Every structure is written in C-alpha cells, then in structure tokens.
Amino acid sequence: MHVDSPNTATNDAGMRIGISVPNMGPLTGKDIALAIAEYADRYAFSSLWIGDHIVFPDEIASIYPHPGGFSSRSDQAVLEPLVMLGYLGGLTTRVRLGISVLVVPYRNPVTVAKMIATLDILTDGRVDLGIGTGWMAEEFRILRADYERRGSVTDEYLAIYKNLLTQEVASFTGTHYSYEGVRLLPKPVQKPYPPIWVGGVGPRVRRRAARLGDAYQPLSLTPDELRVEYAKLAEDLEESGRDPATFVRSARVFYTVDDPSPMAPGVCAIYGDATTVRDAMRRYEEAGVDELLMSPRGPTKQRTIEYVRRLGEEVLPQFV
C-alpha cells in the first residue's frame, strides 16, 4: 500500500476538528482513552492527538513556555505517546493519529524513525508527527538529553527522520549524529513520510515550521493572536520558498461544555454551552485555522468524556 502524505490544507468542507486524549495528569487512564477513541472514530473528528512527557521530577524550576502554566505533578500518571499511539491506532479505523507534540531530543532518532514508520504501516497511513524542542530542563537531565542545544538537535533529528524514511540506503553526517549505509525497511505508507506538524509559539518555532514542517500548531492563542501569527508565518513560508496552499495552519485550545473555563483567568480557552462553543470555534475558522485541535479538560474523567460526546453530537455536524 502506498499513499501520498495528505495535503490537509483547507478544502471546501471547511475547518477540520481534532480531539485530544489526556495522557498525563489526573485524567489519564485506559478508560478515558477507550471512550474518546471510540467517539473520535464515530463522529466527524478528523484526528486524535496525545501529548509527550516521560517522567516528572519532584522539583520543576523550568518555566512552561505557554499560557496557563504546567499543572501535572510527579505523583501523577503519564503514558508514553508512541506506545499509546499504537494502542489508539488499534482502537480506530478512520481518524488520523498525532502527537502534540513529540519532544524530539528525548529519543534516539533512528529508533523514532523506525517507530513512526511502523505506526504508519499498521494504521494504513494515518500518522501525523507533531514535534517540538521541549522545555523542561529537569526532564532533559533525567533522560541525559541535550537541553542547551535542543533546537539544533531537533532540526538535525528531523533531517534524520526524513533521510531514513525516504532513502533506500541512507547515510547521514551531522553535528549530533551520524551513520552510513543504513536500510530502514519497510518504509511508511505515506509518501514521502508522515506529515510533520511543528507545535509551539514564537519566531523560532514558526521559522522551523516554515523550513522543515508541513503544519504549524500554536497553543492557547486567541483568534486575533492567530491572525498575527499566521501573517508572520506567510512571510516565513515565502522566505523558505514554500507554497502556503500546501501548508496547514492549525491551533490547539482547551475547552469545556456547560462548565467554567478549564484555564486560569485571562488564559485563552473555549467554554460555555454548545452554541457558545460552536460560535467560538467559528471565530477560529474565520481567523484562518485549517484544523482546530480541541483539548477537553474537565474536573473528572466522566465530565471530560462528556465534553467529547457533546462536541461530536451537537457541534461537529455544523462544520462538515
């Protein structure tokens, strides 16, 4: 089987809606993963996403780079995303599967390339590889990863992924990693490789997306803030010689339904009744979002699952 990596830029059907599964913190568990995966495939969700951490130290001095702060603690659960993506792939048949985002410097690049190819094959070409550089210096130290040079490592590892996933006999010489005469078989179903979604906010992230990625996914920005980011992204794409029509403009936002905001006061989130949630999502569509990743965050697992059902039944039919 061979399919081209999807050009998932906006089409006549309008904005696509992804949903995320909590895989760290108090909402984590097999039960909630099963329920959300079932809803994702049943309703009109376009994609199913999870996050990435491996371990949390007891003391975290690093500053979370996104609005709202970091809420998980070392005594709470965290499920490894590449393993979990395989599990979710086995539970679903239609929805695309992504990581928002894989912290690239944490893992050996050859091993990750093999895992991504394997996942893409076993899911019939449904993988989207969301990537980021990471932010928690304490976790980097635990994993013996290079925190100070994480941006350079990320760029080089992305080049390695592409090299291994496209070349019959691959060789690579870099600052951080080198190899010669490597055959990574079988190749992924999607050609040339599963799409790379670059997550985060700011000039460095945006330029990385324009140079090396297929999509850009900021977190917790308002529609007005996204308009500014997307205008800058267009300049970065032009500078990199990229065609904006083949590039995906995404965004990720936390939400609830008929409950208070899941975020601290002043931090962007979607909440209210189903009509209010729908109208807020429309504003993201009007801002130019091609695919909106909705991240449910409730006070309990059951409430969080209920948000996904409500979104699927009451809101999504108006976007497809």
Question: Could you explain the architecture of this structure?
Answer:
By secondary structure, the chain is α/β, with parallel strands linked by helices. The protein has one domain (3-318): Alpha-Beta Barrel (TIM Barrel), CATH 3.20.20. It has helices at residues 30-42, 81-91, 109-122, 137-143, 150-166, 203-212, 223-239, 274-286, 301-315, and strands spanning 3-4, 16-20, 47-50, 96-99, 102-103, 127-132, 170-173, 178-182, 190-191, 196-199, 215-217, 248-255, 291-296. An eight-stranded parallel barrel has the order 2-3-4-6-10-11-12-13, surrounded by six helices. Strands 1-9 form a two-stranded parallel ribbon. Strands 7-8 form a two-stranded antiparallel sheet.
**Helical content band:** 25-40%
Strand order of the largest sheet: 2-3-4-6-10-11-12-13
* Main CATH class: Alpha Beta
Integer tally of domains: 1
CATH topology: TIM Barrel
How many helices? 9
How many strands in all? 13
Q: How much is the average pLDDT? A: 94
**What is the string of SSEs from the N terminus onward?**
EEHEHEEHEHHEEEEHEHEHEH
What is the CATH superfamily classification? Luciferase-like domain
Largest sheet report: 8 strands, parallel, barrel
Unreliable stretches covering 5 or more consecutive residues: none
Cα(first) to Cα(last) distance is 28 Å
Helix/strand structural class: alpha/beta
Second rung of CATH, namely the architecture: Alpha-Beta Barrel
Shape: globular
Share in β-strands? 15-25%
What is the rounded Rg?
19 Å
